[in-house]
Amino acid sequence: MKITQREVGSAAILDLNGKLTGGPDADAFRDVFKSLLEQNKKHIIVNLEKVSWINSTGLGILIHNYNTVRGAGGDMVVMHASERIESILYVTKLNLLFKSFNSEDEAVRSFTAAR
Amino acid sequence: MKITQREVGSAAILDLNGKLTGGPDADAFRDVFKSLLEQNKKHIIVNLEKVSWINSTGLGILIHNYNTVRGAGGDMVVMHASERIESILYVTKLNLLFKSFNSEDEAVRSFTAAR
Amino acid sequence: MGKNNVEQMILNIPSDLKYLGAVDAAIQDLAREFSFSPDAINDVSTALVEACSNAIEHGNHFAKDKRVVVTLRFNGGDFVATVQDEGRGFDFAKALRDEAGPDPMSERGRGILIMRAFTDDLKFKCDDKGLTVELTKLRGGGGDAGQ
Amino acid sequence: MGKNNVEQMILNIPSDLKYLGAVDAAIQDLAREFSFSPDAINDVSTALVEACSNAIEHGNHFAKDKRVVVTLRFNGGDFVATVQDEGRGFDFAKALRDEAGPDPMSERGRGILIMRAFTDDLKFKCDDKGLTVELTKLRGGGGDAGQ
Ligand SMILES: Nc1ncnc2c1ncn2[C@@H]1O[C@H](COP(=O)(O)OP(=O)(O)O)[C@@H](O)[C@H]1O
Ligand SMILES: Nc1ncnc2c1ncn2[C@@H]1O[C@H](COP(=O)(O)OP(=O)(O)O)[C@@H](O)[C@H]1O
């Protein structure tokens, strides 16, 4: 899995490319989050557009980083999840944990809206 | 494989969808050509845009129908072949037999241009 | 190859997550070939990937010399897959009784939940060769994951 | 599973063209996973599909109870596949000598040409089990199909 990083407004966007299945991916992903939080960037959007699929270990990686960000007073949302991934988030009730958007605009604005 | 039929100018366009690998596909394909020739439609474009791949039996089907059309005084061209299919046409020198276009416009015009 | 003489595809992979994508790609293409709907294709692929992930991780502990064997069968329209690892199994009866699933914040424990949600039937069996999971998806059925 | 204890994926399919797409999808994903270039992925998939087509058609004559066994291996970066059918083989030495390929108008006889063009090495072997084709694609190489 490849991770590319960019910024829009107050948000850091992580464009993932590949499959999210654990293994070495987990470490790379965690390192990116750590470095973002160290730079005080606490609004993180995980772009799943180019993630063809995810398994439960991959979900675990997302949850781990979500917990880290929340623990640091920030927030994480996902965007552009495929129907396949949406249905996994729904079945595992993770859609109740972190928000999922279909538009980058909405995802970016979600951090500034009243919570 | 699904075959959909439409007309643009003097040309009949066959939109293929699936894989071209022989078997039952061959018969269906031949029947369409037969019926086109019976209706005196002799300018046939095979649209490969939604053909993910082809094997040599599939090539044989194309050649068979090309030969039939030519024998009836018509012509057949292909369009929107993927890079994968283009390279097969090239390696088998079939690109010297029937023309391959990347634009529908050009494919349609190829029948009226001086040959 | 006697016992393979049924209309099924068999995939045999090392205990390495690198091979999961190939299994996923194969089942997706096959389910399309057997006229499953796009939703049903997603469902069976997701469940199968979960079963393989568990076989690789919990069954074979990523051991390079242990294999995961997957069979894919379209039985009169319905889909049945088995995933066999070389491990010693676990208390799957207990796991299947746990309807609730894990705490939302927990980083683990969603594999069986996902397999159950995306299939119509889920069975485990353990013998001296290892653990086998059997996943069934009826052509008409939708599991309970339909949205 | 002793002799499978190398880093390879094994696909075992019925003699039915329906399963070709799943083999194609699997090798494409695997080649991507092992960092093959898009061109090289197309090449190996094309060659492999040709070998499987021949095994199903000429080797097993579409017999429902005969199998085609495919092994996929990335050996220090290079790719080696074997395709084994249950047939009696053919005069492959002669076929390999025929550099010219078929008449352009001929409807048949391009499979071996394609396999040769899209791989770096092509070998046949025939024993009492059946015919085995071995396809090799070097990571750096391009066959002679590069355009
Ligand atoms: N193939 C298997 N072999 C051995 N144990 C397994 C297997 N599959 C699942 N388990 C056990 O069941 C538990 C729950 O599995 P699962 O719901 O997939 O969640 P997770 O994999 O995240 O732990 C695992 O932690 C493991 O102990
Ligand atoms: N696996 C096989 N078993 C037996 N004969 C084969 C096999 N593969 C190829 N052949 C023989 O070689 C010939 C040429 O094969 P090929 O170049 O693939 O063209 P085609 O399949 O269109 O005939 C076939 O017609 C067949 O006689």
Secondary structure layout plus pairing:
The complex is a heterotetramer, with 2 copies of chain A (115 residues) and 2 copies of chain C (147 residues).
Chain A lengths: L1 E7 L2 E10 L3 H15 L4 E12 L1 H16 L3 E5 L3 H9 L8 E2 L2 H6 L6
Parallel strand pairs in A: 2-3, 3-4, 4-5
Antiparallel strand pairs in A: 1-2
Chain C lengths: L7 E7 L5 H14 L4 H22 L7 E9 L2 E7 L7 H6 L13 H8 L2 E6 L4 E7 L10
Proportion of residues in helical segments of chain C? 25-40%
Residue stretches of chain A low in confidence (pLDDT < 50, at least 5 long) are none
Order of helices and strands of chain A: EEHEHEHEH
CA(first)-CA(last) distance of chain C: 42 Å
Strand runs of chain A, count = 5
Folded structure, characterized:
- The complex is a heterotetramer, with 2 copies of chain A (115 residues) and 2 copies of chain C (147 residues).
- Chain A has 115 residues and is α/β, with parallel strands linked by helices.
- Chain A has 4 helices and 5 strands, in the order ββαβαβαβα.
- Chain A has a single domain (2-106), classed as STAS domain (Transcription Regulator spoIIAA, 2-Layer Sandwich).
- Chain A has helices at residues 24-38, 56-71, 83-91, 104-109, and strands at residues 2-8, 11-20, 43-54, 75-79, 100-101.
- Chain A has a 5-stranded mixed beta sheet with strand order 1-2-3-4-5.
- Chain C is an alpha+beta fold and 147 residues long.
- Chain C has helices at 20-33, 38-59, 92-97, 111-118; strands at residues 8-14, 67-75, 78-84, 121-126, 131-137.
- Chain C has a 5-stranded antiparallel beta sheet with strand order 1-2-3-5-4, with helices on one face.
- In chain C, β2 (67-75) and β3 (78-84) form a beta hairpin.
- In chain C, α1 packs antiparallel against α2 (38-59).
- The longest helix of chain C is centred in the N-terminal third of the chain and has 22 residues, at 38-59.
- Chain C is globular, with a radius of gyration of 15 Å.
- The interface between C and D is medium-sized, with 33 and 33 residues.
- One adenosine-5'-diphosphate binds at residues 54-55, 58-59, 85, 87, 89-90, 95, 108-112, 131 of chain C.
